[in-house]
Amino acid sequence: MNILDLIDRADTIVAGRVEHVVDGFTAAGMPYTEVTVRVIDRFRGAQAETLTFRQFGLSAPRTLPNGKVYLGGRPEGWPIWNVGEVSLLFLYPKARVTGFQTTVGLGYGKLGMGNGVAVNAFDNVGLFANVEIDRGRLSADEQKMFDAKNGPVSSETLRNFIRRAAAERPAPGSISNAR
User: Fold this and answer.
1) pLDDT tens across 80-118, in order?
2) Is 14:45 a contact under the CB 8 Å cutoff?
3) Could you give the number of structural domains in the chain?
Protein backbone atom coordinates (compact mmCIF):
# COMPACT_ATOMS: atom_id res chain seq x y z
CA MET A 1 0.00 0.00 0.00
CA ASN A 2 1.26 3.45 -0.82
CA ILE A 3 0.64 6.68 1.05
CA LEU A 4 -2.41 7.64 -1.04
CA ASP A 5 -3.93 4.17 -0.52
CA LEU A 6 -3.58 4.70 3.24
CA ILE A 7 -5.13 8.17 3.10
CA ASP A 8 -7.96 7.14 0.77
CA ARG A 9 -8.99 4.12 2.87
CA ALA A 10 -8.62 5.73 6.30
CA ASP A 11 -11.67 6.94 8.18
CA THR A 12 -9.39 8.31 10.91
CA ILE A 13 -5.84 9.62 10.60
CA VAL A 14 -4.03 10.76 13.75
CA ALA A 15 -0.62 10.99 15.32
CA GLY A 16 -0.51 10.21 19.01
CA ARG A 17 1.03 8.56 22.04
CA VAL A 18 -0.30 5.18 23.17
CA GLU A 19 -1.54 5.67 26.74
CA HIS A 20 -3.31 2.42 27.52
CA VAL A 21 -3.45 -1.11 26.09
CA VAL A 22 -5.73 -3.81 27.46
CA ASP A 23 -7.15 -6.97 25.98
CA GLY A 24 -10.09 -9.21 26.67
CA PHE A 25 -13.22 -10.75 25.23
CA THR A 26 -16.44 -9.08 24.14
CA ALA A 27 -19.77 -10.28 25.55
CA ALA A 28 -20.04 -12.39 22.38
CA GLY A 29 -16.65 -14.03 23.09
CA MET A 30 -14.60 -12.18 20.47
CA PRO A 31 -10.98 -11.54 21.54
CA TYR A 32 -9.81 -7.93 21.27
CA THR A 33 -7.00 -5.56 22.09
CA GLU A 34 -8.19 -2.10 23.12
CA VAL A 35 -5.83 0.81 22.49
CA THR A 36 -6.17 4.36 23.82
CA VAL A 37 -4.11 7.03 22.10
CA ARG A 38 -3.59 10.62 23.29
CA VAL A 39 -4.01 12.56 20.04
CA ILE A 40 -1.10 14.87 19.24
CA ASP A 41 -2.12 15.72 15.69
CA ARG A 42 -5.34 14.98 13.81
CA PHE A 43 -5.69 14.85 10.05
CA ARG A 44 -9.11 13.22 9.69
CA GLY A 45 -11.74 12.14 12.23
CA ALA A 46 -11.03 11.81 15.98
CA GLN A 47 -12.13 15.16 17.35
CA ALA A 48 -11.48 14.29 21.04
CA GLU A 49 -8.19 14.50 22.93
CA THR A 50 -8.04 10.70 23.06
CA LEU A 51 -8.97 7.97 20.63
CA THR A 52 -9.89 4.49 21.81
CA PHE A 53 -10.39 1.59 19.43
CA ARG A 54 -10.47 -2.19 19.54
CA GLN A 55 -8.75 -4.45 17.07
CA PHE A 56 -9.28 -8.18 16.77
CA GLY A 57 -7.08 -10.50 18.83
CA LEU A 58 -5.41 -10.63 22.22
CA SER A 59 -1.98 -9.23 23.00
CA ALA A 60 -0.85 -12.61 24.35
CA PRO A 61 -2.25 -16.06 25.25
CA ARG A 62 -4.57 -15.98 28.25
CA THR A 63 -5.52 -18.48 30.95
CA LEU A 64 -9.31 -18.65 31.09
CA PRO A 65 -11.37 -19.04 34.29
CA ASN A 66 -11.82 -22.75 33.49
CA GLY A 67 -8.02 -23.23 33.58
CA LYS A 68 -7.64 -23.72 29.83
CA VAL A 69 -5.23 -21.49 27.92
CA TYR A 70 -6.62 -19.50 25.01
CA LEU A 71 -3.82 -19.40 22.42
CA GLY A 72 -5.62 -17.24 19.82
CA GLY A 73 -3.48 -14.16 20.01
CA ARG A 74 -3.08 -11.36 17.52
CA PRO A 75 -3.06 -12.55 13.91
CA GLU A 76 0.27 -12.39 12.08
CA GLY A 77 0.97 -8.96 10.60
CA TRP A 78 -1.43 -7.06 12.87
CA PRO A 79 0.04 -4.06 14.69
CA ILE A 80 1.58 -4.46 18.14
CA TRP A 81 0.85 -1.71 20.66
CA ASN A 82 3.12 -0.52 23.46
CA VAL A 83 2.32 2.13 26.06
CA GLY A 84 4.41 5.24 25.48
CA GLU A 85 5.07 4.74 21.79
CA VAL A 86 4.25 7.59 19.42
CA SER A 87 2.71 6.59 16.12
CA LEU A 88 1.01 7.93 13.03
CA LEU A 89 -2.17 5.89 12.50
CA PHE A 90 -4.39 5.37 9.48
CA LEU A 91 -7.52 3.57 10.74
CA TYR A 92 -10.22 1.84 8.72
CA PRO A 93 -13.84 2.66 9.59
CA LYS A 94 -15.23 0.57 12.46
CA ALA A 95 -16.64 -2.81 11.47
CA ARG A 96 -20.43 -2.73 11.41
CA VAL A 97 -21.00 -5.92 13.41
CA THR A 98 -18.11 -6.02 15.91
CA GLY A 99 -17.12 -2.35 16.10
CA PHE A 100 -13.51 -3.49 15.74
CA GLN A 101 -11.12 -1.19 13.95
CA THR A 102 -7.55 -1.59 12.82
CA THR A 103 -4.93 0.14 10.78
CA VAL A 104 -5.25 0.35 7.01
CA GLY A 105 -3.06 -2.34 5.50
CA LEU A 106 -2.25 -3.58 9.03
CA GLY A 107 1.52 -2.95 9.40
CA TYR A 108 1.49 -0.37 6.61
CA GLY A 109 -0.94 1.92 8.44
CA LYS A 110 0.95 2.28 11.71
CA LEU A 111 4.12 4.32 11.45
CA GLY A 112 6.27 4.62 14.53
CA MET A 113 7.55 8.14 15.09
CA GLY A 114 10.67 9.05 17.01
CA ASN A 115 13.86 11.03 16.59
CA GLY A 116 12.20 13.07 13.84
CA VAL A 117 11.46 10.11 11.56
CA ALA A 118 8.51 7.85 10.73
CA VAL A 119 8.66 4.22 9.62
CA ASN A 120 6.11 1.39 9.32
CA ALA A 121 6.46 -2.35 9.94
CA PHE A 122 7.73 -2.85 6.39
CA ASP A 123 10.50 -0.22 6.55
CA ASN A 124 8.27 2.00 4.35
CA VAL A 125 8.89 -0.24 1.33
CA GLY A 126 6.41 0.84 -1.36
CA LEU A 127 5.01 3.72 0.71
CA PHE A 128 5.80 6.22 -2.04
CA ALA A 129 5.74 3.84 -5.03
CA ASN A 130 3.18 4.04 -7.83
CA VAL A 131 1.77 7.33 -6.56
CA GLU A 132 0.20 9.52 -9.22
CA ILE A 133 0.86 13.02 -7.97
CA ASP A 134 1.73 16.42 -9.38
CA ARG A 135 5.34 16.68 -8.20
CA GLY A 136 5.22 20.41 -8.93
CA ARG A 137 2.92 20.78 -5.90
CA LEU A 138 5.43 19.09 -3.58
CA SER A 139 8.01 20.91 -1.51
CA ALA A 140 11.68 20.00 -2.01
CA ASP A 141 11.56 17.89 1.17
CA GLU A 142 8.39 16.11 -0.03
CA GLN A 143 9.99 15.37 -3.40
CA LYS A 144 12.95 13.83 -1.58
CA MET A 145 10.54 11.79 0.56
CA PHE A 146 8.70 10.52 -2.55
CA ASP A 147 12.03 9.49 -4.09
CA ALA A 148 12.77 7.20 -1.10
CA LYS A 149 12.43 3.50 -1.93
CA ASN A 150 12.41 2.47 1.72
CA GLY A 151 13.58 3.46 5.16
CA PRO A 152 12.60 6.15 7.64
CA VAL A 153 11.37 9.52 6.37
CA SER A 154 11.06 12.88 8.08
CA SER A 155 7.97 12.72 10.29
CA GLU A 156 7.43 16.47 9.90
CA THR A 157 7.57 16.31 6.10
CA LEU A 158 5.24 13.30 6.05
CA ARG A 159 2.76 14.96 8.41
CA ASN A 160 2.74 18.15 6.33
CA PHE A 161 2.00 16.12 3.20
CA ILE A 162 -0.74 14.10 4.91
CA ARG A 163 -2.39 17.27 6.25
CA ARG A 164 -2.78 18.63 2.70
CA ALA A 165 -3.67 15.34 1.04
CA ALA A 166 -6.26 14.34 3.67
CA ALA A 167 -7.95 17.74 3.28
CA GLU A 168 -8.11 17.34 -0.50
CA ARG A 169 -9.17 13.67 -0.61
CA PRO A 170 -12.56 12.56 0.76
CA ALA A 171 -12.83 10.06 3.59
CA PRO A 172 -14.29 6.62 2.81
CA GLY A 173 -18.07 6.64 2.76
CA SER A 174 -18.35 10.41 2.47
CA ILE A 175 -20.87 11.73 -0.05
CA SER A 176 -18.19 13.21 -2.27
CA ASN A 177 -16.36 9.86 -2.33
CA ALA A 178 -19.03 8.14 -4.42
CA ARG A 179 -17.50 6.85 -7.63
Assistant:
1) 999 999 999 999 999 999 999 999 999 999 999 999 999
2) yes
3) 1
